[in-house]
């Protein structure tokens, strides 16, 4: 069981390796009659696309997404038909020669070792299937999911911690994210962060980061009470992104230090009878089901494994080696992870919407 | 889609409410010919059982698990037959009168609100389906999963942070966990923690905590590379436990502050050719697949929502109320969460074992 | 993967062996707020129950179904809560001594051989998991499914062929089915069929049969176009019933002899604009999706494998044997298959309803 | 839930419309290290390809399958890597103008009506997603499945009934199938069948047929005992093929006329201890699990719905119409169904192999 599909009713199947001819995905279960064209996908892909600044890999990919099925124009403009939507993205700048040595030696911190151990073979070119390139398919699927959710649901993410540098919770401003090359959730930190990340980059090093997520407009009632709690589905979706090693919902690890009195999100009634919460430690989810408050989560990314400093490793032939990874890499893989976090949230929520509708009507 | 089943090949379906006649689970997909009796389940259930100390709810449940199917003795002792194993646990101490008020008012921080909103009805008695009582079924299933994994895999968890009090990573000692009523992963902290938690308990308050998990003996190669990464499956399993709001694998959120050089778990070869790692920031998982190192994770629990201090809330009739929750509760729900964390890890790993065997042979 | 769960959103998990303490099922995904009590289940179970006439096994089971979870009375009568519904049926008349020899020798035509070969062990008592007793769980689940479907959908089945004796299509009368001990879909054939089946029974023999199914009230649009065509789901559900070896939808195998002109179910418009079909060769399903016409299917049952005439077989110890099966058996297992066919159709359709609602709204 | 994926561990997701730019599939869960190239797929696609004789549609498609991922040559030739295998087939001869009228009027017996009713829109060009063109993806996936099964398993199918003309069971010769343009399982019937089908074709009519399937080399023990019986999975797979309306396993509907004595496949031991069966009424499956005998099934196809004779129908605008379908069609869609039946059997069995290995080891 290889699990290249995710989602229950809104289902995404992806395929493709970093240096193969193309990558892509099939989105199945999308409701019909939703207006959708390639122009709806491209802006999201452009946000994630490599080569956009000195802070991301210099690989030059156009990331042009073509829709090969599932959309039809019967006179009133292209709409989804309820059949699977195949999305195809050509790989145009795959320089496999850069990766000669990693065919043999395992990058510490990378999936080279485990793919080879599990499968006995791996497409080592550019990381093959484990490359961040795969996330383009997620972003394309996420763009479809956003159309399913409609304009009422707003999904935003941004970098709130870059290595040791943090944005205070009260200073987080998601509107700044796509206006700076660091995807930082605050315009103010950008100059200092740029200087910091330039240092990391020039040293051939890399650094971890934390991405915050906020989703507004999710009505109360989505999600499932136990083994597919909305927290659990979000956590799994985020943890499935390459380099992610931690996820917290609402107060998250901070809740471990709270008393019951502090943690309780007290409720009062608004003028029109809606529930007003005094706080949102729950991150918008209680018992696995949305409360109507904003969904909030934080996602920890480890640093890129490909660095210039030699690291001790072993080879698949059973010898020791010291490996430095040349080639084109992101000094902080979390940056381009921001649109991916958003896309995965969109897919989880589109799926939750459909499942809610199924059981509750 | 209600998702009361988890797992792909080793599948667990649970049922039952806190104050109904019984709870239970059906374990499907278990390999045949594994020796199994009720005596294999009971010790694990006894660890989680309420009423064991002043630090857990005073509800008195025997938590006797009966196996109703899937095991047969054909002369050589009872073994699994490959058919579904139904496990049945009677509820014997359900005092529904304690819960009169919460039929009407929603406990802040609890699932009362969201169940009622989603379903339009809920079994409010003792929290119904959202009660921690449900975790007994998980523990029973986990006991079966341990038999599938065999003695080579050792799963251990323990409380490493109780509110503001932490056990230093180097002081964590899982062997102490079941010898103290706090499930603390260190004997040394117990006196101080007991005093602290007594204060919380007597104040009718509650507190959050962090549970650490360590699994040794998992061979390299288990797990799936993308949407069901072993990290993602563990995260989802842990997040599905009531009150959990954060999960991290290996260095977790700490990895956000590491450089690529620091994060890389360097490798050397041992005398017999096996890989020796210099560190384990990956928590035993790279690219979603086990490395052969110990799996390590940390799980954040929020404080119990049921507290004596009145909290502002609303009722399902649309009025405001101040609610204090009487009845029997755990001052720190994470304590009895320790065997549940272990059980969920066991189920995830038994499932990973079967899936690995399917694809790789 | 052991597959003791069926359905996608309306999901049924069953457990239990013929001579174990009990059997049962867990119905998950049921919408909330549907009135449901044990009295809604029992009439359907009583139809299937053994011991009712000389034409079915003389095992005396009360088949009393208890609901252990998922239903709650909040003042307006018991309703489903959206949580899993556990149904429990005790086995009260299990005489395992009757089955001594089949622990050793495989009944030809029975699952004894294949269970033992696959699993290396089997609960041979009364056929264990492969016993027709398991179908009681299906019938209980089907009763829940009928409540989900509501009164607009009518599901009826009946025996239309008993060995060589057939009821002409135009003579089929489903209203007769539960008024005769043969579950025959025609009152007229009953005397002759009783005489025939008495002969089979007294000879210790058995005979196959065909059960017809008709479902009215399914609106146009349910089902999925390709790999879960409504035809395919019905076929799988029927084929999953013990002893079934053939399924056809609408004209079925007869369609192989039709020309395109004959097969086309021509359409005209009724007075209020609804579509009127001139025929129903499609059995109410085109492209896997319901047309609004009645769903029609036919299901072939093989004869009961347990017969008194000695048959050549082998034993699990690797010797040859001549086996005659004593004990209590149905001379025609298809008879009690009638409520099971109905129940499986109900489950498939409740599942189709939920999935339709999910994607289409 | 749209169900464009089938299989549990060997999973196939397909996409594409008849007159879109391309069709294709993603095969997930394939074990690694299996030699695989496009040359392994093409011969099977060529068998199904249109335009090959006057008895199939005159649409000219090259059906060239390209593998875009999941296969890697690390020096010893291309092998599967355990990652998803994306297969892409361009549509080169899509003449949408032929289909103008069916955008408006529903072909009786075709999925036009139900797609439009369910989704409110459909890609009507060439039948869109419901076109037999989709089966090319199945055949490509089936070619991969055959590699998973290996040479020990032989899957063969052929037409055994063409309208009223039947091949006697004892005359069935699968080796003749791909040597005649009718895919007939007997060389002798070909001249008479050609003359018959020429008549049908020239009349602009169509006819139904029955395809028989035989699989040898499946070891005893594959399959699951209840809801995913091997019979049920084969039945669902076959019923999911466009135009199929009936499936029977082994004696099938004939078993309804057998006595228990006749139906029992008696067993004796061979010289080396293997089980020898005296007959195969079970079609190689007992209790849902393979016996080691050949798997045998029969599949009924209805006639092609697109015919020249005008049929009464209605339009999506709510008017009545008389429709004759011009364009290019198969006079007997079952013919090209033969490689599809084989492919679906291959996929079901590859999936059964992996699942068996998972649970049993």
TrEMBL record, chains A, B, C, D:
It catalyses: 5-O-(1-carboxyvinyl)-3-phosphoshikimate = chorismate + phosphate. The keyword NADP applies. Pathway: Metabolic intermediate biosynthesis; chorismate biosynthesis; chorismate from D-erythrose 4-phosphate and phosphoenolpyruvate: step 7/7. One of its GO terms (molecular function) is chorismate synthase activity. FMN binds at residues 129-131, 242-243, 287, 302-306, 328. Keywords: Amino-acid biosynthesis, Aromatic amino acid biosynthesis, FAD, Flavoprotein, FMN, Lyase, NADP. Its EC number is 4.2.3.5. Signal peptide: none annotated. NADP(+) binds at residues 48, 54. Reduced FMN (FMNH(2)). Its cofactor is FMNH2. NCBIfam families: aroC (TIGR00033), PRK05382.1 (NF003793). Belongs to the chorismate synthase family. This reaction introduces a second double bond into the aromatic ring system. Homotetramer. This is Chorismate synthase. It comes from Brevundimonas staleyi.
């Amino acid at each position: 069981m290889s699990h290249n599909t995710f989602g229950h009713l809104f289902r995404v199947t992806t395929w493709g390796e970093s240096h193969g001819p193309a990558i892509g995905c099939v989105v199945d279960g999308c409701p019909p009659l939703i207006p959708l064209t390639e122009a709806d996908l491209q802006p999201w892909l452009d946000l994630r696309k490599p080569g956009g600044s000195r802070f991301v890999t210099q690989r030059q990919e156009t990331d042009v997404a073509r829709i090969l099925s599932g959309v039809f124009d019967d006179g009133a403009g292209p709409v989804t038909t309820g059949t699977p939507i195949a999305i195809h993205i050509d790989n145009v700048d795959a320089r496999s020669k850069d990766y000669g040595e990693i065919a043999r030696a395992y990058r510490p911190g990378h999936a080279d070792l485990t793919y080879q151990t599990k499968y006995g073979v791996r497409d080592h070119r550019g990381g093959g299937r484990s490359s961040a390139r795969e996330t383009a398919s997620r972003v394309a699927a996420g763009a479809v999911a956003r159309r399913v959710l409609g304009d009422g649901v707003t999904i935003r993410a941004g970098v709130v911690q870059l290595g040791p540098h943090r944005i205070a919770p009260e200073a987080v401003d998601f509107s700044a994210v796509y206006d700076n090359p660091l995807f930082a959730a605050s315009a103010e930190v950008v100059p200092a962060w740029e200087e910091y990340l330039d240092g990391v980059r020039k040293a051939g090093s890399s650094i971890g980061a934390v991405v915050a997520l906020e989703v507004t407009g999710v009505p109360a009632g989505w999600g499932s009470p136990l083994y597919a709690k909305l927290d659990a589905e979000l956590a799994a979706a985020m943890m499935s992104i390459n380099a992610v090693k931690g996820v917290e919902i609402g107060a998250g690890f901070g809740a471990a230090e709270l008393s019951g009195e502090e943690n309780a999100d007290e409720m009062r009634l608004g003028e029109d009878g809606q529930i007003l919460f005094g706080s949102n430690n729950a991150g918008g989810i209680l018992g696995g089901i949305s409360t109507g408050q904003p969904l909030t989560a934080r996602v920890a990314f480890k640093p890129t494994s490909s660095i210039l400093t030699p690291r001790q490793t072993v080879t698949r032939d059973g010898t020791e080696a010291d490996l430095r990874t040349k080639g084109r890499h992101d000094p902080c893989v979390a940056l381009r992870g921001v649109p991916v976090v958003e896309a995965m949230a969109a897919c989880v929520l589109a799926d939750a919407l459909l499942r809610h509708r199924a059981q509750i009507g």
